[in-house]
Amino acid sequence: MGRVVLADDDLLLREGVASLLGRQGFEVVGQAGDAADLLTMVRETLPDLVVVDIRMPPTHTNEGLDAARTIREEFPQIGILVLSAYVEAEHATELLATGQSIGYLLKTRVTDVGEFTETLRRIVKGGSVVDPTLVHELVSARRRDDPLDVLSSREREVLALMAEGRSNAGIARHLWVTEGTVEKHVQHILTKLRLPETGDDHRRVLAVLTFLEGSQGGT
Q1: Which helix (H) or strand (E) holds 61?
Q2: For every residue of 107-143, which 3-state class applies, written as one string?
Q3: 3 - beta bridge partners?
Q4: What does 201-219 look like in DSSP terms, one character per residue?
Q5: What strands lie across the sheet with 79-84, from one edge to the other?
Q6: What are phi and psi of 36, to 5 degrees?
Q7: Which residue, among 142, 148, 169, has the nearest Cα to 160 in the 3D structure?
Q8: What pTM was computed for the model?
Q9: Quick check: 190 and 197 in contact, CB under 8 A?
Q10: What distance in Å separates the CA atoms of residue 68 and residue 10, rounded to the nearest whole number?
């Protein structure tokens, strides 16, 4: 399924995630309580995936994020999932722009086992995953003249699922509609929002995030 290194200074959370992943078929090859240990473990074990908290010792600011950047530079083939206790839009979008096999989730999402493990599988396979709460915040923070007004309510639903990194087939399963119906919605969204047409899930996520972030208030 995949070899994973976990990094979080919360020992109970880290052990809980490790146990969960083991039951789901992942092999946890290392656990770290700070960013320095994380980098050492990654260099020694070369895992398929790293799961890291944004805020870690000693200052509990951006150590985890900095470590994730270093891992991406040194080992671009390793998937990275960043966990955060809060929605930090700037950090999330900056990280997601670094390439494929990348994800950003709130820690509260870890309580949904099926959704969490599906997220990890998607990242290992090269996809990008964005927490729905981040998408909601970006949409909510938009200026009054909202470009999303051109979308129907169903198209907004599809847009949010696109930002989560779901394929057309995955969106169809989630909404209980046919894949053909989703394809039509996606084409309408891409046309209305003037987003680039692509079948690559990662590029779709980046296009959606770029649009949402660029259309926030103050621009």
Answers
A1: none
A2: HHHHHCHHHHHHHHHHHHCCCEEECHHHHHHHHHCEC
A3: 27
A4: HHHHHHHHHHHHHHTBTT-
A5: 27-32, 3-7, 49-53, 79-84, 102-106, 128-130
A6: -65, -45
A7: 148
A8: 0.70
A9: yes
A10: 18
CB < 8 Å & 24+ apart, contacts of 70-75? 70/39, 71/39, 71/42, 72/98, 72/99, 72/102, 74/43, 75/42, 75/46
**DSSP code of residue 196:** P
Contact 54, 91 (CB under 8 A): yes
Task: Express each pLDDT in 183-202 by its tens digit.
Answer: 999 888 888 877 767 666 76
Per DSSP bridges, beta strands 27-32 and 49-53 are unpaired
Residue 80: count of CB within 10 angstroms of its CB: 24
Q: Are strands 27-32 and 79-84 parallel, antiparallel or unpaired?
A: unpaired
Q: Is the peptide bond before 58 cis (omega within 30 degrees of 0)?
A: yes
Q: What are phi and psi of 218, to 5 degrees?
A: 90, 0
Higher-pLDDT residue of 70, 204: 70
- Over residues 8-25, the pLDDT tens digits come to 988 888 898 899 899 999
**How remote is the C-alpha of 194 from its chain's centroid?**
23
Res 38 pLDDT > 90: yes
CA 3, chain centre distance (Å): 18
